[in-house]
Design brief:
The two termini are 37 Å apart. With 284 residues, the protein is mainly α. It is globular, with a radius of gyration of 18 Å. The longest helix is centred in the N-terminal third of the chain and has 29 residues, at 2-30. It contains 11 helices and 2 strands, in the order ααααββααααααα. The protein has a two-stranded antiparallel ribbon with strand order 1-2. The chain has helices at 2-30, 37-55, 59-80, 90-112, 138-160, 162-172, 174-179, 184-206, 218-231, 236-257, 262-276; strands at residues 128-131, 134-137.
Length: 284
Amino acid sequence: MLPQLLASGVIMGTVYGLVAVGLGLIWGVMDVINFAHGDFLMISMYSSFWVYTLFRVDPILSWPIETALIFALGYLTYKVIIKRVVDAPGLSALLATFGLSLILRNAAQFLWSADYRYLPDTVVADRRLLLGPVMIGLPQLVAAFGSILMTFAVFYFVRRTRMGRAIQATSMDKDAARLMGVDTERVYAFTFGLGGACVGFAGALLSTFFPVYPESGALYSTLAFVIVALGGFGNVKGALQAGIIIGLAEALGGFYLGTQFKYTVVFLIYLLVMQVRPKGLFGW
């Protein structure tokens, strides 16, 4: 049983990690807590659902559509909302994203109802891989591999590209970055879009095995806050590592203590780490 629990924890942890990477980038660069992050994930899942239902394009193939769509949503969110409050006291941006979250969630419920929707006929549906005593669902395995690849793609982008270095410089000292010629407004908008692209990609893969409904992003959003705090703000690899820790805690806690206590274990780990290392396990 233990190998099965460890495999399940690692697989879900990689997906949690990717969702947290997007939130952590925005938080680390702009010091803005995006309460609508989970709702961006929900919009991506609905997009994946409708693309499959209307055009029969499988989520495994339609992920570029969801990734680009949520990148654009994030970019527009910065231009229309966040730009006006990014230099205001922190509570202003927090309330702005909280309001956006309510709007997106209620709009989804108005347009598509609160019903749970499933994609039972995708190319990976109901397929399983048996590795000795461990049985892994193919949709979850594909989501895990995709999440790892996307996380390392973001890590490479931030470390190796010109825009990535501008993001790092802005996160360290935005005034110094401006003096060095960095267009911080462009960096902010791109970072918000990149954070959205992470959940856009994750949402497409999650829709193959997770129900789609207006509250579907809420759990992932809550766990992402914990993972970002554990992994360190803006730390891409730290978010992946912290996501795996949370995935394992959820799987092991749920089995040994009962499913009703699995998130108690997660938040207990969070509280303990914050007491010892307030900047997170892998923070700068």
